[in-house]
Amino acid sequence: MHAAVPHLGIDPAWEAGDPAGLAPEHAQHLAELESLDHELAALYRRGAEVLAGAANPAALDQRRAALLGRERGVITLALGDLPGLPLDERKRRGRGLNQVKRWLAEIEAARRSQLEREAEARAATGLDLTLPGRRPWVGRRHVLAQIQGELLDLFHGMGYSVYTSPEVELEPYNFTKLNFPTDHPARDAHDTYFVRPEVLLRTHTSPGWVRAMEERKPPLRRVFPGRVYRAEHVDATHMDQFHQIDGLFVDRDVSLADLKGTLAAFAREIYGAKIRTRLVPVYFPFVEPGAQMDVACVLCGGTGIEHTPAGEKRCVVCKGTGWLEVLGAGMVHPNVFSAVGYDPEEVTGFAFGMGLERIAMLRYGVPEIRLFLENDLRFLSQF
Ligand code: PHE
């Protein structure tokens, strides 16, 4: 009597495929087994068909385990039954089972590489729906443009509209009408690039006031953003071009208190609600009185002392003074009003001007002004 070959574990629902394409000798193997043992032939036929019919690698794994698995596979179980058989039967069945095992393993390997080739072909046609999409590269505004936008928003909220004026400016607008007397030493601080004797690259955005006032009568509230130029010796904190925003407020009875209130609002917005400020008298030709506004040092908080693990040392940002100069300001000089045809007995006004690079450097701790112009994305993408 033949011992039954267990068919347990081969799911009757598994779809069948055609093994002929995977194993050219399939028909021959089948005929060989038929003459040897019907049951082995049936096992081989069914096994070959379900391996060929596996639709994907996971199904193939499952079927391989059911047929060829080392512990519970059909072949392994049948081999385990051999010792109970008579010697002749044992030899015949043993040899047959080993052939079935080898041939099924070959079909399984052939089907696996066929599935892999199919997957590659699908990917090559661009139809792999599991591939993550390519993100578009998204740019951003330059850090200085961001700060400029923030300031324009702030001043817009206080009633200022934007006035843009030329970067290549006439000498009188940059200097004379702003009450820089010819040959006055105040011009030395504004050493610039001349295009022709009367035409220069503007050294500040203040010439915009003159143009705005010449265009219309008071009252006037304007901000003047833009790029300015100076023939500076370039180093970590000085560039021969940088950016400013000026502000100008002209009306009847404008006072220094109005200026202080405006500058305090600016400082709170940019440096935080708790920031301490002070005005220090300073000379500028176009304002009287003139002042600079300082804010308490952003690094040491105004103490002038930096606490490091190694002990206390002089604050590097404010150089121990506790204060940082952030802008120039003052009451518009009567000579400037006269130069644009306003009556200095009728109107008063204040003005202020600040550098955008300096604001960015203090806010973000940028140690080197040249970084703003180098267009290195490793720097710019941090903001
Ligand atoms: N225009 C001055 C400068 O660039 C700054 C300033 C503006 C000072 C307005 C006073 C009033 O140095």
From TrEMBL:
| Entry similarity comment | Belongs to the class-II aminoacyl-tRNA synthetase family. Phe-tRNA synthetase alpha subunit type 1 subfamily.
Q: Which E.C. number(s) belong to this protein?
A: 6.1.1.20
Q: Where in the cell is it found?
A: Cytoplasm
- Which amino acid positions bind Mg(2+), per UniProt? E288
- List cellular component terms (GO): cytoplasm
Q: Which GO BP terms, alphabetically?
A: phenylalanyl-tRNA aminoacylation
Q: What is its main location?
A: cytoplasm
Give the EC class as a word: ligase
- Record Gene3D superfamilies: Bira Bifunctional Protein, Domain 2
HAMAP family assigned: Phe_tRNA_synth_alpha1
> What cofactor does this protein call for?
Mg(2+)
Name of the protein in its database record = Phenylalanine--tRNA ligase alpha subunit
The record's free-text note on cofactor binding: Binds 2 magnesium ions per tetramer.
> Which reactions are catalysed by this chain?
tRNA(Phe) + L-phenylalanine + ATP = L-phenylalanyl-tRNA(Phe) + AMP + diphosphate + H(+)
Keyword Signal part of the UniProt annotation: no
Fetch the Pfam families from UniProt: Phe_tRNA-synt_N, tRNA-synt_2d
Q: Which UniProt keywords apply?
A: Aminoacyl-tRNA synthetase, ATP-binding, Cytoplasm, Ligase, Magnesium, Metal-binding, Nucleotide-binding, Protein biosynthesis
Q: Return the InterPro entries for the record.
A: aa-tRNA-synth_II (IPR006195), aa-tRNA-synth_II/BPL/LPL (IPR045864), Phe-tRNA-synth_IIc_asu (IPR004529), Phe-tRNA_ligase_II_N (IPR004188), Phe_tRNA_ligase_alpha1_bac (IPR022911), Phenylalanyl-tRNA_Synthase (IPR002319), tRNA-bd_arm (IPR010978)
Q: List, for all copies, the residue spans of the domain called Aminoacyl-transfer RNA synthetases class-II family profile.
A: 147-374
